[in-house]
Amino acid sequence: MSDSGAHASVFDGLKVELVCASLGRRILAWSVDMGVIYFVGYVVFLLLCIVFGVGAGIFGILDKVSGGIEGLDIAGLLFLALAILVAILALGSLLHGYFIYFEYAHGTTPGKKLFGLKVVSEDGRRITKGQCTMREMLRWVDCFMVLPGIIACLMSAKKQRIGDMVAGTIVTYSARQERAQQMLYLPAEHFDYLKQVLKPSDLTPDAYAGFLPLAFRCFVQGDRTAEAQLKQVWLSAVMRQIPGLHDYNASEEISLRFFAELCHQSEVQNNAGKKRAKS
Q1: HEC profile for 147-180?
Q2: Domain that holds residue 119
Q3: What Cα–Cα distance (Å) separates residue 175 from each residue in 24, 29, 162, 180, 216?
Q4: Which of 67, 100, 144, 158 falls 20 to 30 Å from 10 in CA-CA distance?
């Protein structure tokens, strides 16, 4: 996935280079966002079905009990039309509101954040609510008609879809932000510093096969039993694996977290290497 650069004037006389996100990264981020939207939309749809199903049942009972009150059929049809209208409005609001809210409030969506992407104005400034709304309204042309958005991104020097061109926005990519999302046990800057100071040797999968599941339960899920097992069984092994931890006088938790992140990053690299070998 190739990312290109674009210069933006933030202030007079000051220019910064923004890295425009590639089409591949944008598609991956959009897929994650749509997955979130579909899941929430499915839950909302089920709730609406329950509510309106109960309403339809009440109308049916009234119709049987009353022997057919005049106008009840019309009221039932109006109720059905209302149900369809509410469902369309609710799902449409979820679809568009999701992108408008996250991009205006945070400059990024959960999917974009995962891949290190951010939406900014062409001059590098934060996007306005009007820009968010404009690019969102044109999402139907770009994303759901597919070809216009893809062609625009491929032809544009700034990798802009039609909505970006009209709204005056670009989607930028930050490798640092993407990497930060991949860190599990320590922040990237802390991990990089400790790695530079301690200079640990390369790990083999056998070295951490039994360690990572315990570390995940301890530091991610908060399992106290796993924490006790880590300290009793693995702490001394970690200290032997990385002798510099003694000299650095790191706490038990930092030592275990550093080794866990080291193992995690090693596993990520090994998996990536296997995927490249298969392709």
Answers
A1: HHHHHHHHHCCCCCCHHHHHHCEEEEECHHHHHH
A2: 4-175
A3: 14, 14, 25, 9, 25
A4: 100
Question: Considering 155, 175, 195, which residue would you say is the last residue of a domain?
Answer: 175
If residue 9 lies in a helix (H) or strand (E), which one and from where to where? strand 4-11
Contact yes or no for 29/119 (Cβ under 8 A): no
Q: Which pLDDT band holds residue 166 (cuts at 50, 70, 90)? A: very high
Banded pLDDT at 44 (limits 50, 70, 90): confident
109: Cβ contacts below 8 Å, ≥ 6 apart: 29, 33, 98, 99, 102, 103
**What is the structure's pLDDT at 126?**
87
Domain boundary among 119, 143, 175: 175
Q: How many helices and strands (H and E) does the chain possess?
A: 15, 4
Measured CA to CA, the distance from residue 30 to residue 149 in angstroms comes to 12
Q: Are 4 and 157 in contact (CB under 8 A)?
A: yes
Q: Distance from CA of residue 265 to its chain's centroid?
A: 19
User: pLDDT value at position 14?
Assistant: 42
Residue 17: is its pLDDT beyond 60?
no
Which of the pair, 63 or 161, is modelled with greater confidence? 161
What is the rounded radius of gyration, in angstroms, for the C-alpha atoms of the chain?
Answer: 26
